[in-house]
Amino acid sequence: MPGKAQSHRLRAGRHSEAGRIYHVSITCHHRHANFAQLGQGRCAVRALRAVSDYADTLCFVVMPDHLHWLLQLRRDAGLSGTVQKAKSVATRYWRLEEGTKEPLWQRGFHDRALRKDDDVVAAARYIIANPLRAGLVRSVRDYSLWDAVWI
Known about the structure:
Elements: E1 21-27, H1 38-50, E2 55-62, E3 66-73, H2 79-98, E4 110-113, H3 120-128, H4 130-133, E5 146-148
Antiparallel strand pairs: 1-3, 1-4, 2-3, 2-5
Helix pairs in contact: 1-2
InterPro entries: RAYT_transposase, Transposase_17, Transposase_17_sf
Pfam families: Y1_Tnp
Domain Transposase IS200-like: 17-130
């Protein structure tokens, strides 16, 4: 069916593995720039910190209309549940910040499990460089909505 959302296909074959490192991308509803302002973006940052019982955040960058998150699942945590919890908490904070009941996120998320031989630091550098590639800043030092455990 043309025009019908295909987000269910993102879940096909998804498997969570404790200790595995994942690169997760989550997109704002209709790709709206819901995190264009610092206060809005901080809602997503607070949410990633709020799920620290489920995953260790290795790095993240909050872009105006999406976020990238490099995480390592903790024991007994599932990827879908962890991401859903982060999205839920971010939505709660964002709605309070904005005074709205509008949806924040598109359904689903995209993930890629890093292989054992993947360079985690290189993956983190790629994620953190998103504002540069998007032309938002000339240096990552000029962008406030990112962090990495190596810094």
